Amino acid sequence: MDITPCRFGTSDQSLETIPIAVEFSGGLELLFSNQRKHQISLPTKDEDGQTANVAFLVQYLCQHLMKDRRKELFVMGGTVRPGILVLINDADWELEGENSYELQNGDNVLFVSTLHGG
Amino acid sequence: MGAFALSLTLALSLASILTSAALLPRSLVCANDGTTRAGDLFLRDNLSPQPPALQPRADYSLPCAICVPATRTAVLIRSFEAVSGTMGTIIYEMLVAAAAQAGVTLDTLGDGLVRDGCVNVVSNGVRWISINQNNHQQTLSVVAAAIKAVAMFMRGSGEYGWVTFDIMDGMNQLGDLKRQLSAAENVANVVSPTNEPTPSSGVWKWPLEAEEYKRYGRQMIMPEIGLQGQLRLKKATVLIVGVGGLGCPAAAYLAGAGVGKLGLIDGDTVETSNLHRQILHSTGRVGMLKVDSAIDYLRQLNPKVEYVPHKSHLTPTTALDIFKSYDLILDCTDHPTSRYLISDAAVLSGTPLVSASALRTEGQLMVLNNPPTIPGTRDGGPCYRCVFPKPPPPASVLSCGEGGILGPVVGVMGVLMATEAIKVIVAGLDKSRKVESNGTDPSMRSEAEPSMSNWTGQPTSKERHSLLLYSAYGDPPFRSVRLRGKRARCDVCSDSPTITKDSLTSGSLDYAVFCGIPNPVNVLSKEERIDPQDFAHRVSGAAEEHVLVDVRDKAQFDICHIEGSINIPITALDCATGDNNDDSTNPGLYALRDSSAPIYAVCRFGNDSQLAVQKLKTLGYGDNGRKYIGDIRGGLRAWKEYVDPAWPEY
Fold first, then answer.
1. Nearest partner of B504 among B433, B432, B445, B437, judged by Cα
2. Which chain A residues are within 8 Å of B336, Cβ to Cβ?
3. For A63, how many CA atoms within 13 A lie in the half-sphere containing its CB?
4. Which domains does chain B carry?
5. B158, B178, B577, B643: which has the highest count of C-beta atoms within 10 A?
6. pLDDT (average), residues B208-229
7. Per the CB < 8 Å rule, is B391 touching A82?
8. Distance CA B165, CA B73 (A)
9. What pTM value is reported for the model?
């Protein structure tokens, strides 16, 4: 997939970002302004200059998108908490390299909290 | 001809010629007995529902209740219970062609030509009535020719299936009919390549009962099911764990579809709050064991299924003993503890598992352990632990009672479970993978039952595993995502498992501990809590100026709230930062800031209200301890119990 970074000028450095779609399901949307779909511009590099991967995305979402203070309902031990499936372009992230998957332009990342009711 | 795909399940085992089960005397059935004159001609007219000379008196659904004038014979060709619409048209075309051929063939068999006749699609098949040139009733050769013609016609289209011929002789000459049939079978045997045993009149030679052909006909005529699929369903034993929102619709459809044995496990009784979604129960059965209530309903639906009640919740020590009697398990429970237990027991017993769940407006569905894991190998589909190796934190687990549930959403998931169960059963269960409780060596397993077809519904270990997500308000509402396969280090289904039959059965595994128990919220001091009756006393008659903050969600607040209370949902409080921005997003907070009156927090059960008190203090609403902030102990449930019996508890 082609990567066509967008360039945004900031005060002292230019930040390159890629557009990705993030979705929340299974009740997780309640932690994200009760909105299921979010289009975000994710910096292509993390603070250490490493290419943005899913681990960085999760951290970014926590800092910038999640309004709810109950972070423990989304992350635990530096990654998504147990009981949340991460699906990258509709496939289990474990098929894609989990946290180390490097995000591509236009990727769709779906976070699904497993349900238990019945 | 594409349309003929529908008649796939008709035709060619034409050795199967059959008389109607009962040929009744004319006088018992026919209103026109003795009034129809020989020689009356039936014109070919498929528009009229039936020729005027045929007047049924008895129940028209009986295949034999068609009155035939004494001089004629009617051949009723039944496919399944009924034909209509496209199917009827197809069979009509087929019969017209068959009749045309029969007319030609007759000549060569030394009988008179079929001069005219009619073909009708009727409620229970296709009726073809004709008379021969000599105005006699149809004879052996007429019938034989008809059968041969139909057979050739169907073989020409490459179809396979079965057809029943009901022959109603106007003279009711049974002896003659038998002779005719026997001869006709010989003709058909020449035509048909199949070599089935020859049925004799009155002896039922079919693999299903007559009633079952009617009952299951609508699903059997589909190529995905067929007779073979129906026989597999009839042989299958299915266990439904949990007879609630998922289990009720799943059980209803599996019973309807004709599984052989249906086991139901549940220790709960029916409550009024179940009825909006648990469709097997009813108002009159509130208080009854769910298992008993469900079986009452299911027996009415389909008495042919064997129902087995298990009237207590599943436990680790008994799970394997119960699972060994079933070919397929449906997890219709509502908590992670049971989900892990059921998955472990399914793996250890070698049983495929259909697992679904639902909450609010969403549902999820997976088919797990399919095909079943062979212990000690990496063969087989993933289990629940492969997908979720660690349980979710207890605080994130919401039940339907807490989070809410839309009835048809959980209903859809239950129905989908039944669909997946039928697919697994019809594809052919590999029972050789069933692990016997006596520890049969799985490596000694026999060859799997060969599959009848290679249609793509059959799961194989190479097939992708998926999770179906349903969200009633989602766009799109249905979504299927690709799941990982078996986890190499899975605790139960890897080649070196830590969870074994012994550890499960011995009771050494505590699933409640594994999944964690949510800690009861108890974060406030005694002074910060007030009993509902004390609160009522304190504020009655506006004795004390106060603010009552109801921290439930707005939807719950709108259902009912204590007069004068204001609504600040706990979720909104969680997001509050304590600065002026809060006031613009929640006017309630502004009111709190502006007042010096004591603040009381209340919620449904008295947990969130404690957190709200803490949060309000953190945000500075307590004016450094000068303003009282406390919660109502036990919430609105206690309010109803101790203060207001007329409170509408939901």
1. B437
2. 83, 116
3. 8
4. 2-206 (no CATH), 226-439+453-515 (3.40.50.720), 526-642 (3.40.250.10)
5. B643
6. 92
7. yes
8. 12
9. 0.68
